[in-house]
Amino acid sequence: MSDRYHAKDLISLASALFERAGLEADKARISAEILVEGDLLGHTTHGLALLPGYLDGATSGAMVGHGVPEVISQTAIVETWDGKRLPGPWLVQKAIETASPRAREFGMSAVSIRHSCHIGCLAAYLTQVERLGQMVIIASSDPSVASVAPFGGTQRIYTPNPLAAGWPSPGGAVMIDVSMSITTNGMTNRLRGEGKTFPHPWLLDGEGVPTNDPNAFFADPPGSLLPLGGTDSGHKGYALGLLLEALTSALSGFGRADAPTLWGAAVLVLIIDPARFGGSEAFLRETGWMENAVHTNKPAPGVERVRLPGERGLALKREGMERGVALHPSLPAMLKARAEAAGLVMPNPV
Q1: Which CATH number characterizes residue 327's domain?
Q2: How many domains does the chain have?
Q3: Alpha helices in the chain (DSSP H)
Q4: Quick one: pLDDT at residue 2?
Q5: What is the pLDDT of residue 196?
Q6: In which band, very low, low, confident or very high, does the pLDDT at 134 lie, cut at 50, 70 and 90?
Q7: Is residue 228 a part of any domain in this protein?
Q8: Which of 125, 162, 205, 241 sits a CA distance of 20 to 30 A from 234?
């Protein structure tokens, strides 16, 4: 990692860059906060690394900086929005603010979004809901991009399709953020740019042969990312990938059948309130039992401690808030160049 920076300074810079690119102040601030949260949690390909693509989208018109989503359909519990190419982080934040109080009343609520711009790191949205004693599930796909082939196939048909979820436990939040492919587009691009390979054959070349070379993804014919589970159990990741397509594009009413061309997202935000099911106390008793069972589990050789999902990311965030955010080495130069081009000052390292 490179130098560390105060999170508030990075948020201020990113927010100012977004405003220079044409985003309204609240959209700029929320987008900046979500990107920096991604870096705080250790998701370095889905934090400020996404800033150039977002800024270029805003200046080109592919991202719309003003306005509100259109409500396509609505019930007391469920809404479907046309995101109107508005910033993805802002749309997801507004979906959470819409669904959370309804879940408090009805037990659950969901917002489906079509025509969203990219939504960043899904884990970045989770703790705000968990702190309210609720569960949140966020699913995303990009109907304009294909990078994963179906199990047994060689041609890309869908994206890594991440699924994130968070829920409360007595010791703190439990958080998952996993893609339905072994690796991601962002990591494949990064390793290719760095001249590195994957530690294992996580891709297929254009002929369907497993490889660890990210260049195979960009070859002719193009390679593909292996589904979660790889060559042995990839049928499971493939099935989950199709489920995520149904939960996102299909539910929102706009997807690959419409042949979209702009980088973006189809999104589902689902919030569940345990108080309306078996009760909050019973929920925490059960999650607490599992928490204890995990933490007291005898570690395998070479493992220091068995952790719950999200513990490492939250520990990184605590460290980042205390000592500064440790950015990937590729980011400070990019941020400095973007700042100077916009007439802004790059913050100093901690």
Answers
A1: 1.10.1530.10
A2: 1
A3: 7-20, 25-40, 51-60, 88-106, 126-130, 185-194, 230-245, 251-252, 280-295, 311-323, 331-341
A4: 72
A5: 97
A6: very high
A7: no
A8: 125
